[in-house]
Design goal:
By secondary structure, the chain is mainly α. The protein has two helices and two strands, in the order H-E-E-H. The chain is elongated and about 115 Å long.
């Protein structure tokens, strides 16, 4: 059954290619001797062969398509590059924070906690010395 579908696929492509070839030949025969007025700029009209006009229009479309695809691909690459550089910068910042955190003295669980004791009364606290009073 797979062989039958392969034959159908191949013959469909052959028939389509033959039809396109016949159409192009008929197009060239019918339009080969026709002239067209090509407007280029104000007051500038040119008489050109229709086939040349069609050929150059097709080539112009191909060039525009390639340029557009290249531009879109370049924009996508720039966006990816920005994303990667942002990710790398964030990773560096996290690594720096981890390095700084590891340099801090860590308290072991068996080490006693020293809390500052508060004085029992305000009399135990020495009054502040005012430099102007001397």
């Amino acid at each position: 059954m797979g062989n039958l579908w392969l034959k159908i696929k191949i013959w469909t492509k052959v028939i389509l290619a033959a039809f396109l070839t016949i159409y192009v030949l008929v197009f060239v025969i019918k339009n080969g001797d026709r002239d067209a007025r090509f407007w280029y700029w104000f007051g500038k009209d040119y008489d050109v062969k229709l086939l040349f006009l069609v050929l150059f229009a097709f080539l112009g479309g191909v060039v525009v398509t390639v340029l557009l695809a290249t531009t879109l691909r370049t924009l996508r690459q720039i966006r990816d590059l920005r994303s990667r550089s942002r990710t790398e910068r964030l990773e560096r910042e996290v690594a720096d924070m981890k390095a700084k955190a590891s340099m801090l003295r860590t308290r072991t669980p068996t080490e006693p906690v020293h809390h500052e004791t508060t004085p029992a009364s305000l009399a135990d606290v020495a009054p502040p010395i005012d430099p102007d009073e001397e």
